[in-house]
Amino acid sequence: MTKIKRIGYWFSEEKYHKLKWMDFEQYCSDCHDHSEMELVRVDLSRPLHEQGPFDAIVHKLNDLVLLADQGEQESIVQLNRFQEYMKNHPNILLLDPFQNARRLLNRYEVCKLITDSEICKGDSPIFIPEWAVVTSSDPVKCKKILEESNVTYPLVCKPLLAESHEMAIIFTEEGMKDVQPPYVAQSFINHSAILYKLYVVGDELFFVQRPSLKNFTPESATETDTIFFHTFDVSKENSSVFLNKMDPEDQKNDLIQPRESHLRKITDSIRATLGMDLLGIDVIIEDDTGRYAVIDVNAFPGYKGIPEFFKVLKDFILKKVTSLDVESNKLLGLENGLHGLDGMSACCAMNYQDLQAAVS
Predict the structure, then answer these.
(1) Which of 25, 150, 192, 193 has the fewest Cβ atoms within 10 angstroms?
(2) Is 101 a known ligand-binding residue?
(3) Is 126 annotated as a binding residue?
(4) What is the DSSP letter of 255?
(5) In this predicted model, what pLDDT tens digit does every residue of 207-249 receive, in sequence order?
(6) Is 196 flagged in the annotation as binding?
(7) Which of 48-52, 265-269, 282-286, 328-332 has the lowest mean pLDDT?
(8) Structural domains of the chain ordered from first start
C-alpha cells in the first residue's frame, strides 16, 4: 500500500487566497488518487512537532520574514520555531530552500544574480538592462554612480525591497531629486508595452503575456516629469491605463514573438543558480535588437493564467517528495539557509551600511 505523503504548507492569509489554495485542497481531495497526499496547514504559533510528521513543507515564508525584519516580535518567534524544527528534521523536503528564496527579497541581490549568471555572458541574446544601486541623494554622487554603471535616461527607480511595487520613471538628471535613496536605478528599454511572465514549476515552464510600460522617445527626456506608478496597475491582466497604451506612431504590426528556447534557457539557468523549483521571472524583448531582458525574479508567484495549475503543482510535489534524497536536500542549503535566526529577525534585506559596503 502506498504511504500517504503528508505535505505541510504555510502562506500568509493574502497569499493563501491569491493562490486559491482552498480550491487546491479540494482538488487534491477529489482526485481518484487522493490517498497519495495529505495537505496540512502549518500553524507557526504552535510547536510543529505537534502537527507533524511531514514529508515536505511548501511555503512562502518570505512574507513572514518581512514582518520579522521590521521587528515584529511574534514573527521572529515563529521563524525561530520553524528553524529549530527544520534543524531537528533535516529529512523534510522544503519547497523552496529558505536561504535561496530569501535572496529574492532584495532587488540588489536579484540584479546581481542575473548579472552574474551564465545567460548574460558573451554574445548571448539575453541580458539585464544596466543598473546601479543609488545610496546617496547628493546630485554629484548620484550622477557618478549612474555614469560608472552606464545607466541612461529614461530610467526606472525600484525600491530595494522586492515586495514593494511603487516605482518611478525618471527622464532627466533633475528628476533624480524626486526619489529617496536607497533604490535600484535601471535603464529603461523600449519593448512595445509587452511583458512576459514566466512561471516555473520544477521542469515545467509556462508563460503568459501581460501589459507593460509603453515606449518613450528620446524627446521624452526633456518634456516629461517623473512618473510614479504601481506595477500591478500597469501589468495586471487586461489593464488599460495611459502608461501601457502605445502612442500611435509607436504601434507596429511586426511584434517580436518570444522563442521558447530562449525562455527555457533563462528559466533553466536561474533555477539552477538558485536551487529553486517554484519561480516567477519577468522578461521583456527589446524593440531595436530583439534581445531578451530579464527584469525581475520572485519566489512562488501567483501562477495566474496557467492551465491546469493545480494538477501541475500536485504532480510536481508528489514527484519531488517520492524521490526525496536526504543528502541532496542538505546540498540545497536547508541547514545553512536557516542559520542566524536565533533571537532576532532573519534580516532579509541589507541594512543601509551593509548595502553601501556591498556596492562600493
Answers:
(1) 150
(2) no
(3) no
(4) P
(5) 999 999 999 876 666 667 899 999 999 999 988 898 999 887 7
(6) yes
(7) 328-332
(8) 5-101+309-348 (3.40.50.11370), 103-299 (3.30.470.20)
